[in-house]
């Protein structure tokens, strides 16, 4: 499965550039996640808001299923190479539409211990 489509990449890169601009102007930019990736045979979930142009380094809320989701970076290349049981790999939730901003998801996930909750 393609984890990041061309359309999604453009949106993620635009968010990255907006985040960089917001940091230099000291204004707040709190985007909604653009894509949700997940482990279909495990409890790992990633809500991604941006990707550095020219790379596959994405930023978002990462939940490794151990009760402490956190904001950080993840390599899309590394996720794509994971070989899971039953010949499966990390998947993209094609039906995902964010209801909250990334900081709202992060606050909720820290309180409940999981993105899924």
**What is the H/E string?**
HEEEEHEH
Kindly state the mean pLDDT as a whole number?
A: 95
Into how many domains do the coordinates divide?
A: 1
- Proportion in helices: 25-40%
- By DSSP, the count of extended strands is 5
Poorly predicted ranges: none
- Mass-distribution shape: globular
Cα(first) to Cα(last) distance is 25 Å
Q: How many helical elements? A: 3
- The Cα radius of gyration reads 14 Å
> What topology, given as strand order, has the largest sheet?
4-3-2-1-5
**Largest sheet, described in full?**
5 strands, antiparallel
Question: What can you tell me about this protein's structure?
Answer:
This protein has 117 residues and is of the alpha+beta class. 32% of the residues lie in helices and 22% in strands. It is built from three helices and five strands, in the order H-E-E-E-E-H-E-H. The protein has helices at 6-25, 76-81, 102-112, and strands at 35-38, 45-51, 57-63, 70-75, 91-92. Strands 4-3-2-1-5 form a five-stranded antiparallel sheet.
């Amino acid at each position: 499965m393609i984890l990041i489509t061309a359309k999604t990449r453009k949106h993620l890169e635009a968010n990255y550039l907006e985040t960089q601009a917001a940091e230099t102007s000291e204004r707040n930019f709190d985007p909604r996640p653009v894509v949700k990736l997940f482990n279909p045979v495990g409890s790992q979930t990633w809500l991604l808001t941006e990707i550095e142009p020219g790379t596959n380094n994405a930023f978002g809320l990462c939940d490794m299923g151990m009760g402490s989701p956190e904001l950080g970076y993840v390599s899309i290349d590394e996720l794509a190479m994971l070989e899971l049981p039953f010949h499966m790999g990390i998947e993209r939730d094609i039906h995902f539409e964010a209801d909250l901003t990334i900081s709202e998801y992060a606050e909720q996930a820290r309180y409940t211990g999981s993105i899924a909750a």
